[in-house]
Amino acid sequence: MEPARSNPYTGRPIRVVIWGLGAMGSKMGRLLLEKPGFALVGAFDRDPSKVGRQVAEAVGLQPDASASRVAVEGEFRVVDADVAILATGSFLSDVAPLIRRALDAGMNVITIAEEMADPWAVGKELADALDRTAREKGLRILGTGINPGFILDSLIVMLTGVCSRIRSIRAERVNDLAPYGPTVLRTQGVGTTPDEFQRGVKNGNIVGHIGFPQSLRLIAHTLGWNIDRVEEERRPIVTNVPRRTAYMEVLPGQVAGCHHVARCYVGDQLVITLEHPQQITPEAEGVQTGDRIQIDGVPPIDLQIRPEIAGGEATAAIAVNMIPRALEGPPGLLRMIDLPMPAAILGPQAIWRHGGVLAGV
Amino acid sequence: MEPARSNPYTGRPIRVVIWGLGAMGSKMGRLLLEKPGFALVGAFDRDPSKVGRQVAEAVGLQPDASASRVAVEGEFRVVDADVAILATGSFLSDVAPLIRRALDAGMNVITIAEEMADPWAVGKELADALDRTAREKGLRILGTGINPGFILDSLIVMLTGVCSRIRSIRAERVNDLAPYGPTVLRTQGVGTTPDEFQRGVKNGNIVGHIGFPQSLRLIAHTLGWNIDRVEEERRPIVTNVPRRTAYMEVLPGQVAGCHHVARCYVGDQLVITLEHPQQITPEAEGVQTGDRIQIDGVPPIDLQIRPEIAGGEATAAIAVNMIPRALEGPPGLLRMIDLPMPAAILGPQAIWRHGGVLAGV
C-alpha cells in the first residue's frame, strides 16, 4: 500500500458542503475552513439569521479568517462537491430523504445522525434502499460521531481485536450535561419530578440516549453474535443536593438526568451491557465523568478514559477525519467498522492520493 | 456493505498454515484448531521434538482435541493454503526470505515479526520489493501483534480519530517480565549490574523493545507528520529490593529490566514519546502494570488500561482475528492502519463472505 498512500495529496482539495449549521455543523465548518486539503464549497441552513452571510462568519470565525467566499443558503442546492456533511437530525427517517438528495446531486454523504451509525438496527428496508442507491451511483454514505460511532461501539470492537474469547462486554459513558441548553436537558428529563420523568419516558418526550440499538448491533454483528433480545431502561437520576448550570437549577428530590441502560442477550446470556447516565454536574454528588470499557474475555481488558472524551469536539473531528476514509471506501452504505480506523488529519500526507478523489466522484 | 458482509461464511473454511510453533505459534495453532471457519492445513517447525507429531498435540492440546490429522513438518512445504501465519523471528531481514517462499507458494502472509508492523521504518528497499511482489501475485502481507501493531500505534491512531488538533502524544506500556524465560530476560538485561547493562546496550546484546521505529512511523505517517528525528534511550531499571521469578533472582543494586524510551520530533518539537519499561515483578517496588495513552489535543484524551493487556494472549488473538481482514484487503504489503479495525472472531458471521477467499487466492 505504501507507495500509493504515502504520497501527499497533491491534486485539488476535497470539495465539501455542510448541510446544517447548528453547533455541530458550525464546528465542522471551522475545521474544514482551517485544515489543508479541503474546500468548503457550500453551506445550507434554514436559520434566517445565517442565510446570506459568509460561511466563515456564520460558523463563528472572524469574517476575514478564511479565503472562502461561500455564502450560506437557505435550501440545499446542487453544487459540484465530493461530499456532503449532513448535520440536521438524529433519525433515519428524517435524514434519508436528505441523503437521497445529496446522492442525486452526485455527492458522497457523511452524517452524524445517530441512527445512521447502523441504520439496519432500526429500518432494514430503508437502509437497504439507501445502500442500493449509493452502490448504483458509485457513492458512499457513512454515519459517524462520538456516540454512537466511537466510544460505545467502534472502540469496543477495536479492543476485541486482541481477544480470542469473550464472555461479556460492559461499557459506560458518564458525562456532564452542564454545557447543554434547555432543548437537550428536556429530552433527558432534567428538572422534572420522578413522576413526571416516568410519564415523559412513556409518552416519548424523555428519550435518553439515541444510539444504543445501533451500537449493540455494530458490536454483536462484528463479533458474530446473533442478538436474541435487547432491553432498554431509562431511570431518573434523582439528585440529593442542589445542582445548577447556566440554564437550569435542580433541587434535591428532582431529576438531574437520565440513566439509560441497554442490554443485549444471546439466548438467555447477557453479553453486552451499555450504560450512559446523562446528568448535569455529576461531580456535585462525587460522580466522576469518564468512559469505561470492560471485556470479560481472554485476555481480559479494563479501559478507562478520564474525563470522558468531550462529545462535541470529538463528533465534529471524527466527521471531518473520516472524509478521506469514506471516499476511499467501496460504494454503498458504510459503517465505521467497514473502513480503516479513523485518524486525525493533521498534515497534507494524511489526505491520501486516491483514485476516487482525484478523478472526481 | 451490509448485504454482502452480513452473510455467514458458508463456503469452505479459510485454509491456514503456521510457520513456527514456539510459544506464539502454538497459541495461534490452538485458536485455529478451536475456532469455526478455519482449517489448519500445515504446520512447520524445526524443533525435532515437534516434527512428526500431530499438530493438536504439538501445540499443547489433547491429541484427540481436534479432527485435524496434520502432522508437523520440519521444513516449509508448498500446500494448498489461503494464508501462512509466520511466527519465527522479529526482524525484516530474517523473515523476508520466508515471506517470499510463502508468496511463491500462493499464500497470503500474516506475521508477528515486530519489524513487519511497518517494515518501511527499517528497510525501504526490502519493504518496497515485498510490496511489489505481493501486488504482482495478488496476495497480501500483514504485520501485526500487540506491540508493535496495537497498543503503542494502532490504538493511538484510532484515538486520534476523534481529535481535530494534536500538540503531542505520550504513551506507555508497563508490563511484568516474570512469566518469561532466560532468553527474553537476557535481552532486557535482567540480572546484570548497571555497568554490564551499559556495555550490553552498546554491543547490542541488550535490545530493549523491538518495534519503536515501526510504531512511531505508523503514527506520524498516518497523522501527516514528517518525522525529522527519532531518539531511542535504554536505561537500566535498578532494583532497590530483591525481586524473584521462576527463572531469575535479582538483588538490590542489580538490574531488574530495561526502561526503553523513544522520542519523535517534527522540527525541534517533541511530538511523540513512547515508553516501555520492561522488568520483572514491578509491583515489588509499587509500580502498577498498565497501558496508558495521553493525547494533548482537542479534545484531550487520557486513557488507561489496568493491568496492561496481556501480550502473549493478545498477539496470538490479533494474528488470527486479522486473517479475514487481511484476505479482504487490497493486494500488497499492508499495515494495520490500512485495514478495517480488528475485531474478535467469535461466531461464523464474522468470517465474511469474500470473493478472494471463496474463489481461492
Give a written overview of the molecule.
Two copies of one chain form a homodimer. With 361 residues, chain A is of the alpha/beta class. Helices cover 29% and strands 25% of the residues of chain A. A six-stranded parallel beta sheet of chain A has the order 2-1-3-4-5-14, with helices on both faces. A six-stranded mixed beta sheet of chain A has the order 7-10-11-6-12-13. In chain A, strands 8-9 form a two-stranded antiparallel ribbon. In chain A, strand 12 (290-298) and strand 13 form a beta hairpin. The radius of gyration of chain A is 21 Å and the shape is globular. Residues 1-10 and 349-361 of chain A have low confidence and may be disordered. At the A-B interface, helix 1, helix 5, helix 6, helix 9 and strand 13 of A face helix 1, helix 5, helix 6, helix 9 and strand 13 of B.
How does the major sheet of chain A shape up? 6 strands, parallel
> How much of the residues of chain A is beta strand, in percent?
25-35%
Radius of gyration of chain A from the CA trace? 21 Å
Chain-averaged pLDDT of chain A: 91
The H-and-E topology of chain A, N to C, reads as HEHEHEHEHEHEHHHEEEEEEEHEH
Major sheet strand order of chain A: 2-1-3-4-5-14
Percent of residues in helices of chain A comes to: 25-40%
Give the overall form of chain A: globular
Structural class of chain A: alpha/beta
Tally the beta strands of chain A.
14
Quote the distance from N terminus to C terminus of chain A: 21 Å
Protein chains sharing the most extensive interface? A-B, 71 and 71 residues
Helix count from the secondary structure assignment of chain A: 11
- Given as residue ranges, the uncertain stretches of chain A (5+ residues, pLDDT < 50) are 1-10, 349-361
Oligomer: homodimer
